[in-house]
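Checked the freezer inventory, then went back to the computational side. Two predictions to log before the end of the day. The first one is the construct we discussed on Monday; recording sequence and C-alpha cells without edits.
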Amino acid sequence: MINNEWLSHQTIQSRGDYKEVRAEMVAPEIGFSLWRQMTRLRTVEQALHEEYHPADEMRCPIHFCIGQESIPAALSLLVQASDYLFSHHRSHGYFFAKGSPLKELFAEIYGKETGANGGKAGSQDISHHETRFYSGAILSGAVAIAAGVATGLKIRKSKEISIAGFGEGATDEGAFWETLNYAGKEQLPLLLVCENNRYATYSDQLKRQFNDNISERVKPFGIRSIKVFGNDSPLVYRTIEEGIKSIREGAGPLLVEAYTYRWNSHVGPEDDGKNEYRTSEEMNFWKRNCPIRLLENALKNANQWNQSDIDKAKKIIDQEIAECFRFAKESAFPAGVCWKELNEEDKTPLADQWLAEEQACTFDQNQSDAKLGPY
C-alpha cells in the first residue's frame, strides 16, 4: 500500500504532479470499470452544466461534482443494493454511486413529475427510496441520519452497512462530532466518506480549522480512519473495498478522508471566481491531476488501454445522456400538489401507540425497550 501519511492540502500541491497511480492495484476489468464510471459521471455533469444556461429550464440550483468522480465511481462498484447511502447537497455522484436511475435525476432537476421525487426535491435534496439513496441540504445531516440507520442495522444484526458521503465543511458542525462520539461508542456498521475539497463555499478549511487532517481527529472517538489522495482511483477503490469488508465483519465504523478538488463553482454553472478565493495556479494543478486523466495514463502504462472498448463506452454514455434529456424535457410538470400532505402526515398509528403506551421508565440505559421488538 502506498504511504500517504504526508497527505494534506498544504503539501499536495507543493510536491508537484501526482505520479503514483498504479493500474496494477486492481484487476484490469476493475480498472476499466473505474474509468467508465468516472467518465460517465463527468459526462453527465458537464452535459447538465452546459445545458443549464441559456435554456434556463432546470428548476433548482445544482452543486456539480466535476473533478470529484473517483469516490462515487469506486462506491458504484462496491456498494450493495441493500446498503444505505446518505449524501450531502453535492448529491449527483452519490445518487450515481447507488445505481439510482439517471433518467429520474434529470427529470427531478427539471422539476418534472417523473423525477425521483416528483420534481419537488431538486438536486440538493434528491432521494431514491427504491435504491436506498438519500441526500439533504442540512450540513452534516447525512452523517447523523446514516448513524441512526446504522444503529438499526446493528440491532437487526444485519450484514448491510450505512454510508455517509460529505465534505470537510460538515466537520464544522457540532452534530458531526456528536454523531462520531455515538458511532464510536456503539461501534456501528458505518462508513464515513469525507471528500475533502478544501473549500466550504468560499472559505478555505485552514481559515476555519487548525489543520485539515480530519482523519487524525476522529480517532479518539473510536473511529478507525485512513486518508488517501482522492484522485488516485485504484487506491481509492482498494481502500474502500477493504474498509467495507472490515465493517461487514464487525470491525466498527471507518472514516476515509479523500483529498480532492471541485473544478467548478460552489454552486451552479456561474463562475464564482470573482471572489478570488482560489488561484489559477491551484486550479490548474488539480485539473492536471484529474482523476480520469491519471487513470488513463496508468492504464496505458500497464498496457490495459483498449481504444475500441473506450470508443464503444463513450458512444453508449452519449446515447444514455441524450435519452435522459429527452425523458426529462418531455415529461409533465406535477399537477395538483398538496403542500400540507408533503409536510405533514396525519396517519401515524404505530408512533401514536408508542407515545400513548410507553413510559420513560420502561427504557434502559441503552435507550431500548424489549417490548417494542426489532425495528
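The second is the one RB wanted added to the comparison set:
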Amino acid sequence: MYIRRKIRFKILFLDSWIFLLLTASWAAFAVYLHDFVGLGLISIPIAPITTIGIAVSIYLGFKSKETYDRWWEARKIWGDIINKSRSWSNKVHTLPFLDNGTPISDTVKKELIYNHLAWITALKYQLRETSRLPKGNSLRMFNHKFIPDDEFDELSNFLDTKKLDQLSNYSNVATQILIKQGQLVQKMTIDGYLDSRKQVSFTESIEHLYDAQGKCERIKKTPFPRAFAHIGQIFTWIFMLLLPLGFIEIFEDQGLKYLHDALLQREYMFALVPFTMIISWVFFIMERVSDSMEDPFEGGVNDLPLNAMVRTVEIDLKESLGEKDIPLPVQPINDILN
C-alpha cells in the first residue's frame, strides 16, 4: 500500500512513459498523414469523440467506485481479523483455569497463541497465491509485486516440524490450523480448564475466524467481472485513438485564424501532440488506478499491506506472552508498505 500523501512523479512516470511515448507518436503520425501526406479525410468531427469521452468518463467513475468498495471491504475484514486476534489473546490469558483457580500452563498458552499466528500467516500466503502481477521490487505504481518468503519457512516460526509435515498434505492450510485449534480447545475442556460457557466463547472466536477467512476467499476467488472491465478498457483505448483525429480540425482552424504563414500553420498543428498526451494520460491513469484496486490481496502497490498487518498481530500476541524476541514493525520501502 502506497502510504505517502503525495505520489512521486517518478513512480507515475515509470508506469506510464511507454504509454505517453505511444500517444505522442500516434498524434504526431496523425498530423503527418493530414498535413504532409494529404489525407484530409482522417480528420473527424470532435462531437462524436466527445460523446465517447463522456461515456468513458461515466464508466471509469463507476469502475473506480466499485473497485474501491471491493478494496475497502477487504480492509474492513482484515481490521476485524486484527481485533479478533487480540480478543483471542485475551481469552487465552484469562479464561482457561481449573476450579481451584490453577491457570493453564504457559506452554499451552503459547501453543494457542502460536497456532493463531500460524493461521493468520497461512491465510496471508493463500491470499497472495496465483497473483496476476509480476514479481519484483520495481517502483512501478500499478504493476508491482513483492517477492514473498516461503510459506512453510515462515510457519516454522510458530509450528513444530511434526505439525508442518501434517499441514503440507492439505490444500487449505489455514483451515486445517483452525481445526487443530478447535481440537486443542476441546482438550482443554476435557482437562477441566474450560466449562461449557468458556468453551462456547472460544468456539465462537474460531467461528469468527472461519467467517473472516471465507470473506477473504470470496474476494480472492471472485474476480472483478472481466467482460465489464475488459470492454471498458477497449472503449477507453478507442477514445484515446480517436482523440488526435478530432483535434486536427480544431487546431487547423486555430492556425488559419491566428497565423498567416503557411509554414507556421503547419508547425502549429504539432501543438495538438502535447494536448493529446495530457488528456489521454488522464484517462489512462484513471483506468489504471481502478484496475490496480480490483484484487486487494495481490501484493501490489495499492493493495492491502498484509505483511504489515500480520506483523502487527504477531507483535501484540508475542508481547502478551511476555516474550523478549519481538520482531520490529514492517517498514515501508520506497513509500510502499507491503
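For RB: The longest helix spans residues 46-94. The chain has one domain: 9-320. Let me know if you want it refolded.
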